[in-house]
Structures are given as C-alpha cells and as structure tokens.
Amino acid sequence: MRVLSVSSNVLSSTGRLDAKFHLSEGSAVAARMHCARKTLEFRQLGGEDGIGRAWYPTRFKRIYAVLDEDFVPYLRPYDVFSYLPRAADRLSATRSHRLTDYRISKDTILMTCSGRNLGPAVITDAYLAQFVLSHDMIRLKIEDETLRLYVLGYLATTTAQHLLRRDKGGSVIDHITPNHVSAQKIPLLPEEEMVQIASLMKQSVHLREASRVGLSALQADYENSIPAIERRRKRLCQGWTVRSRDIRSRMDAAPYDPVVVKTRKNLLKSGGHRVDALAEVQKPGGRYRTLYVTPEHGLPLLSGAQVLQFRPINLSFMPEKALRNVDRYRLRAGWIAYQADGRAEESLGEPVIITRDRDGWLASGHIGRVIAKDGVEPGHLWMALRTAQAQIQIKAAASGSVVDSTFPADIEEVVLPPLPTIDVRAVMKLWDNFVRAQELEAQAVALIEASLDTVGR
User: Fold this and answer.
1) Which of 3, 75, 218, 365 is the most buried (most CB within 10 A)?
2) What integer best gives the mean pLDDT of the chain?
3) Residue 302: how many CB atoms within 10 A of its CB?
4) Which pTM was predicted?
C-alpha cells in the first residue's frame, strides 16, 4: 500500500480528492516543474491567453456509404500512429451530418484522449488530412510554426505525458478533455534551443509525410497494373453454390466466397504466385510467461497493434532469459511482419517491413513473419501482400469466434499478383525515412528532457 500525506493547500488548489491523482508520477513531475518556474517561462497551452486552441467535436452518428456512393475515409484514433494507415470505414459524404467537423486539417496536432494509453500526440500531415476522425481525438491548433513543432516534441516527453495523465478521469475507461489539455503549462526553453528542437521536429514530420505519400502513390500505381477485384454479381444473402470436390478442410463460407475464388484465378492467370513460392512464413507457437522489465533490462516486445506503429505506444520489454527459445520471437531487418491474430475486419493481415532500427527486437506469438526467399526483394513482396487482392484472401482465411486467427499454412496459400517491376531501392528508401524520422524526433525529445531535467532539480 502506498501512503502519502497531502496538505490542505494542495487539495484546495488541485480540487482533487482521489488518491490516484496525488500518488501519480504526474504529481511528482508537477512539483519539479513548479521549481523550474524560477528559471523558465511557462505559457498555458490553451484558453484566452494560451498559445493554441484545444477542442474536439461532439459525438456523431456514423452513416456508412453504400456501393457507388461518394464517401470519406474514416480512421480510428490509434490508426494515426500507423506507418501507412488504411481507412477503417467509408462514411457517406452526402448523408453524414456535420462531416466537416470531423475532417482534420494539415498541421493540426492530434492527441488520444481515452483508453489505457491516452496522451500520445501526432501531427496531421498531407496523408492523414484525407481522413476524418471521431470525437475520440483532441485537436490542438497552434499558429506559430516554431511553437507548434516545439510543443509537438514536448508532448512526446515523459514529463508531458505524466502531467497529462495526472489529470485523467473516469471509472472504467480513462479520459482527458480539451480543458485538461488547455490548462497544461508549457515550459519555454531559451529561444535558440526551441528553434533547434523545432527544426529537428520539422525534418521528422516532413520525412514521415514523404514516406507515407510516396509509398501510397507507388502502391496505387502497382494496384492499377494488376487484375482488379471483380464486383459481386448478387447480394451475399442470396448465397452461392460450391461443388463437393472443391471443399477442402474448411466448412465455413468465407474461403469459398466467389469474389475470393475469382480473384485467385485471375491472379494465377496473370502470372501471380502463391506466397510459399516466394517466401517462408513463420508464426511462433505456444504461450510464454510475461515478465516485463524496464528498458535497460530487456528487449522491446511488439504486440499485434504495435508492429504497425512507427512509434509503438506503451511498448513493453522482456528479458531474454524469460523466453525458453528467444530466437523464435526475434525479428530481423528486411522481414515482413503482420497481425496474425485479431479482427479480420480491422488490421489482421496488414504487412509492414521490419526496419533496421527494429532488428533484434522481439514480437509476440500473435505476429506472423514473412521471410523472402533468395532473389525476392522484401520491398516488392510487401507491396504484393498489401494489395487489396491479397488482403481479401488473408481475411477470408481467418477463423475464430471472438478473435480471428491465421496460421502460416493460410498465408502460404495466398496467391499474390506478379511482383512489381519498379526499382525496389525507392521503396526501401521510403521505409528508411520512417527510421530517420524517428531518430530526429528522439533527438528533439532528448534535448527537451535534458534541459527540463537540468532546471527542474
């Protein structure tokens, strides 16, 4: 049991009586930041005299687009941290009410505000600006570019994250509100330091934006060159007929969907190949006992959602000795990873390339690995696996009741389109830009943390 004495003045000034508020890391950080006021200027983030404006729209009813209707792509909150997020749904552009309230404009800072991992922030780039987001993300607009980029870096520090989470409320699900964000006091470092930090963050944002836009364009050109998915001739509820000789080990309808079957045939006719002809597929089996440690005592362990994120949210660390055969869980640069377990209608099967900064990291047994054979370029294989033609096969192969699962044999049977002929160096350079963007951001965050640590003690 943790016990802490709190003065009546503190209770009066904070207006909080709950123990978790006063025992949080944020309360200790707040006391340290109070000492820093002797040497640093602080500005409120929002409000009348603030440096920006924080808000989120009201709740909205999602009206999904029907076939051939104009639509706007919709993202879930944590999708904004993915390397190359896909639309989670298509919302009707004509029948959705107040849709403009949920569009996000470039250079807007987005912050998660509910759930276990609230607080991480990202800025809207040209790629993200094509989507709409729900009320579950706080929008933060700061007009001054240097201040905006500095604040973006500051929000990534442990100092800012502890202070934000200190103010969280809620019983079952944690929440913060625009008022909480607006009330945050931002420590302003000396001007030359802020300019340096803003410059690093600007380079980071531009590199990530270039990678997203570039990879998306290459993927679109590639998909336009392969056989398209044929439209369904009749409604699913009308069913279809399958001959007994075509029934394999599965008795459910999904693998025999005429659209999936026709897609496989068209890809084979066009010169496509099964995955097992191009790569080896692995998925470590068995459960392990979790033994999480601090970063200096273990290796990063990616979960299913984190493998898709350029900045893994709430990353865990495991010591090598905790795993009986640690190499089964280790990742290598150039491999392709994907969510092997999850929800078929969400990100299950979505591939990413393991970049050089994650070489040697661990990944859970819920993540599959695709290892290109000699003579096959990982960048080309990633593009083929990401096509809609490959994805509908993967999702049709998933099985399960609450959690959908795929196995190596399922992925090996997927028929891929003919591999792209573009220079693979262009693909890999764009993936390496993601790494460089994170390195620049880490430099900026380290500079802020070092300065705050110096003046706050």
Assistant:
1) 75
2) 89
3) 23
4) 0.91
